[in-house]
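Progress narrative, work stream C.
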Amino acid sequence: MWSKLTIDMGALTVEKQTLEEELQDLGGRGLVAQYLIKNVPPSCDPLGKDNHLIFCTSVFAGTRLTTANRLSVGGKSPLTGGIKESNSGGYAAALLADHGLKLITVKSLPDNDKLWILRITRDGKAVLEEAEEYRGMNNYDFVDAIKGKFGDKLATVSIGSAGERMYRAASIQISEFNSGHPSRAAARGGLGALMGSKGLKAIVIEKPEEKFKFEFNDEEKFNELASRLNKMVAEGAKTDPFHNIGTIATIEATGENGILPVKSFSGQLFPQYKEVGATKFMTNLATRGGRNKIPCQPGCVLQCSNCYNDEDGNYLTSGFEYETIALFGPNCGITDLDAIARMDRICDDIGVDTIDTANAIAMCMETGKLEWGDAAGTLNLLKEMADGTGFGQVMGNGCEAVGKELGSERIPVVKHQAMAAYDPRNTIGTGITYATSPMGADHTAGLTMGRAFDDRGRAAQAYVSNKLQVAMSFADSMMCIFAFAHVVPALPLLGEMMGAMYGGSSEYSRVTTMGVKTLLTERGFNKMAGMTDKDDRLPEFFKMERSQATGSRFDIDDYELDVLFEF
């Protein structure tokens, strides 16, 4: 059976126990929801003693299913004030599963301001070790220091100076498989601030001497089903632009149709989008010794990660993604891909969400603090955030804080969280997801832009958003959503895999009800935290201002949003 660790930062104790029976077959987002609703008062101060910070693996972690080793981080969000699950790749979840651990919960607050590391040793012991020597150290230097001390057969989960300062847009950075770069982010919702409030600098997970062996209900059947799904993902990857290029390929899909955000969601087109698109990216990789088709976790056959070098061939950043490029790029009028890569590296290093941070930069440009397209000025503001200057601290609290500080009337946030890189006037279903997701404006909660339907009209978009939000809530409990897209034709196999691994029902309804239950639990948590229907709204300017590219506006009325989850 799976185990859990309970870390009491007040008493500075670590306790290992068998995970509760009712949580054994949960994972990821579903486990976060069920744990928080039972253990965290929804009305609590997100940075207070009653909030918990949890780390958990997926339903199928430690198995042969590709991309099953995702790490979910959860708690009451310091940014949104509601429930938060932030999902990341990297090496940490695989090593947790190898230790037989599904859940780590960090509770209470330390009695002093010391920093600590939770170290899970190769022989399976879990101990808190003082980490004052790492205070103020950002993520890249921290990982190098840890490797120098404990070797490179490990994974790290860490915060940089942003988390220590409890910036409300602070991320938690997870090291990539093989390279060890701290470039995979549990980015959204300010969970890095929650980690900082607990006095926890990092979790260091060493590769175990003896790998945990889970007792399957029917291991042979599970492995046969996993092989079938792995082959589907591998076959789909042959023509998947995320595999063959990377998520930056989305620039080409959104740049011509008004979905790509331009100059703080102005609705304009950006004729220079190809300057930060796939061709430029691939050329730079080829001429500088960079790489794509890299797995961020063991066993991934989709391999959408990358290593991006500067003009001298030196490593600059990895996991260089569409959201970061679109929001620091066209949404700020910047066309220098290398400058955007430097912005990505700084954000990963100090530990902040690139989505909220890039939108904050756009607020500076819209209000005249910076000129549109000012890459040098942007890098200077990121340095202010790293240095902790007065305005740098405002920046660290995200887009809404900056917009309000500078007097902007057009702040692209929902539930205080900045929008991802899709203009909701031209992908209406995604706009509905932004508005109604318990997570805030999060595209991974149900991005409706796809080949199955015309996303630029109203018809059926609420229905599509509803179904995708259910699907994403159980996908985020099981595997990477990029791989999940390739197994959609065989989704009933996931129910069979649940039965083969944990026993009980093998019906597909076991999976779908997990998705519905997760969403309703999250919404219940948010309601008890004080959220109302008014929090399920897009900013008014998306309704009032038509997209200059298409003439479209977000024309979904409030009633349609209010009844979306009346299943």
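Work stream C, second folded protein:
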Amino acid sequence: MKEQTADKIIRKTERVFLYAQVVFSWFIILFGYGYALRALFTHYDRIADNIFYTVCFCIIGLAGQKLMLRASLEELREAKKQDAHE
């Protein structure tokens, strides 16, 4: 009985962690693309600075989207499938 309760607590904690991972991925994406827009429309002394900062922040947003969000959603799907089979 105690083992089942402990297993449920562990599974729920893992599920909360997976949802938090997805939310954090969205924050990284919004941060990257948001600051890319900000850098694009901010007027620095040289246009090369705007382009450089915009590209760098777009890379951050793209990395969050392609690497973090995809992996987080896949882990969440696997956990839901595993819970459905049990």
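The chain has a mean pLDDT of 90. No further action is required on this item.
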